[in-house]
């Protein structure tokens, strides 16, 4: 399944189950889409990684493979390897704005040098982030469930079925 692509700052509408008033899109990049690029700082990567470790709005399967050529997206940091592409993240901004991003965001920023909007980066820097309990309370208040992100293990590579 192809993932939808949305302009930064547009109203979030990818899944009606995960909509909340004031939710806007960030980082829904697609193949052939132009987007602002800038080499990321370690601070930015570290901030995004905090959110990447928790999945919000999980989908049934890995549904993202547009921008990248590899079959799966695994990102590793601080000894933790996560399988990305089947969930989203939420970042709370000021004045009631909620940012919805695919959890591929870390990959997009690290590898493709996607430059997220300034207001989003400010929200990362200034607002409570996971694992702060206040962050999870805000998710709960919106009726959003979360779980720990999928840890990647080599056994996730399914063996091919052998013919008899
Ligand atoms: Zn990629």
UniProtKB/TrEMBL annotation:
Residues 5-124 form the DUF7919 domain. This is DUF7919 domain-containing protein. It comes from Lysobacter firmicutimachus.
């Amino acid at each position: 399944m192809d993932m939808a692509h949305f302009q930064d700052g547009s109203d979030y509408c990818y899944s009606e189950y995960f909509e909340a008033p004031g939710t806007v899109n960030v980082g829904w990049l697609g193949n052939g889409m132009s987007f602002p690029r800038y080499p990321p700082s370690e601070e930015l990567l570290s901030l995004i990684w905090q959110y990447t470790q928790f999945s919000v709005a999980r989908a049934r399967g890995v549904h993202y493979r547009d921008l990248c050529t590899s079959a799966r997206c695994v990102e590793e940091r601080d000894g933790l390897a996560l399988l990305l592409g089947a969930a989203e993240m939420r970042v709370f901004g000021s004045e009631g704005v909620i940012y919805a991003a695919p959890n591929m965001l870390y990959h997009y920023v690290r590898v493709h040098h996607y430059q997220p909007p300034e207001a989003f980066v400010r929200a990362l820097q200034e607002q409570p982030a996971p694992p702060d309990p206040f962050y999870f309370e805000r998710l709960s208040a919106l009726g959003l469930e979360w779980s720990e992100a999928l840890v990647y293990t080599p056994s996730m590579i399914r063996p091919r079925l052998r013919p008899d």
